[in-house]
Fold:
Amino acid sequence: MEIGYYPGCALHGSSNDYETSVRACLAALGVGLREIDDWICCGATAAHSINHKLSIALPARNLALAARDGFGELLAPCPMCSMELLKAEQSLRADPELRKDIAQIVELGLDRKTAVLNLIQVFQKIGLDQIKDAVKRPLDHITAACYYGCLLTRPPETLRFDDCERPSTMEAVLAELGAKTVAWNYKTECCGAGLTMANEATVLELSHKILMNAASHGANCVVVACPMCHVNLDMKQRDIERRYSVRHGITIYYLSDLVGMALGLSDAALGIDRHFVYRG
Amino acid sequence: MSLQLAEDRRDLIPPGLNLAGCYQCGKCTAGCPVASRMDRTPNQVVRLLQLGRMEKAISSGAFWECVSCQTCTTRCPKSVDCAGAMDFLRQLSVERAASAPSAHRTVLFQKTFLRNIRRNGRLDELELVRTFKTATFLKDLDIPFLFKDASLAPRMMRRGKLKLRAEQARDRGVLDRIFERCLEAKL
Structure:
């Protein structure tokens, strides 16, 4: 199976360990990714904070590029990207006038629909049974806190995925891998997202609470499906520990890391050895 | 600076935000992860907009503290798009160059981010750090902030997470045109 792929800036930048992980894991499951030619940034928080039209136009250009390349389905492993793409798609479908206007702005037709998938949806598409059958190394040493954060499920009218207050789709994947998961309180709380540089105090406070809650419920790792969540919980973990005079030392995995591990892939093949919190 | 917003300017508010429905139950504020950091809570911001008190709403730093987590909008029993209201205020405050001084870092971050995208098509992270830190320093002369996170660069590089030459989109002309057509004010 080959599906369209929108990496977004993070996966081609400082979260390239996520791309390594996603590619390796999906390849092991027989799924190839074909990148959308000449994709551009989705605009992220900056666009919707500054100009509404731009926040539709930037993702719309990518949807149009995907349609031009013949992709009916598109994997966007970053929830910020996938939310922006879905929001644009939703606005364009609801308003033919806007669609005409934006098509002129982005210089491409917007008449074809593109389905945008997150990483969990791609695993569901492959089939959890198939994944279970492919497991070579059950993860019985893993007790995970599945952390969904914000944009995998919110806003629900746009995302139409899982239960936005009590999501459980990651737990369902981990169950097939033989991993245990914990019930905890901060599954859908925000980590501070892209404000890491501009407003560090907020990010450290929110991320600290998430790590505390995960550990106090008996998790030995946190699982994410978002590059920004990973940056804040993994890369910033040392800063969190300094700010709050605690020692977390908790490993933050991407969901694809754990699927890949269960399939028998090495830490290096999945980019796990490039995390900041890593014990080899 | 005259904002021309002192009078009732409810006409500026996009109807899609559905603000009229708010009956001040406070659920938005209860679930907001950063309400304690705001000078006005989300329900107060919504009330100011309902009343057309734009100048008061826009002078608040609250909407720049907002992390866009969408919890308020998701939980509102009256389908008020509170997170959308925060976006609306951010957009208006940038357009009118009227952001709260306390929010200067976040405003500069979002602006340098967008300029970066306009130039490169895809985010050049090293350039973002450089331009954001320079712009912030010129504004607040905060030397510790300027050099903060400097130690992160070598640690990122060791992990192959920081490229000296970032990739760019090929068709950057179209980006410039998209920005030109969308933006009413200069970035």
Summary: Residues 2 and 96 of chain B are 10 Å apart (CA to CA).
